[in-house]
User: What shape does this take?
Amino acid sequence: MPTLADTAPLLSIDAIDVHYGAVQALYGVSLDVRAGEVISVLGGNASGKSTTLKSVLGLVAPTHGRILLDGREIQGRAPADVIDLGVASVPEGRRVFPEMSVHENLLLGAYPRRKEKEAIAQDLDEVFAAFPRLAERRGQPAGTLSGGEQQMLALGRAWLRRGRLVCIDEPSMGLSPRFVDAVYEVLFRWKAAGQTILLVEQNARIALELADRAYVLQHGHVVLQGSAADLAADPAVQKAYLGAA
Assistant: This one.
């Protein structure tokens, strides 16, 4: 019986280099994500993990290498084209539209499938059930929400996209432990529902609990990769990222 490892990747990043002007940010980075997997990309500041995600989303263009979604090259495509191919994004810093209401922000996530009125209404109900705070504040401008509430809104907006792949950049950044728990409770639910996720995260401990596999970046290079359980037990990872002595 075929296993997940036998299936072709939904997303494949193949030896990409990325430059910001004269500065090289990624050096031959390769990783893959299979349908139904949660993959975490870990690393400290300036490790290249967010640049890896931005490359998938078309926010930066690799100077070398390929990125394939379902076997189709997408490197260098415009972000709107990547989203149209079934990718959803939860960007670092939430990036909500502050003047628009919570409800309007959520509907923007569903825009590519706007003709599916009944399905969107059902998904909205699911988001409001998962995040009661958003239900209470659905008519408020998104800019009046706290940081944690805005992160919930960004997750809800991505869920409304119903993407085959959700790319999430630093979901715990700047949040209180209570909000981190609330956000990851939803991500564990998404995983149980079979959602494919590529997650960039500095909080290695919780990211490795969620992930099936993980990659560790350092100065733009992949320095470790493997199952999340193996990496969590690796003394080098424990010392560098999990606060072990």
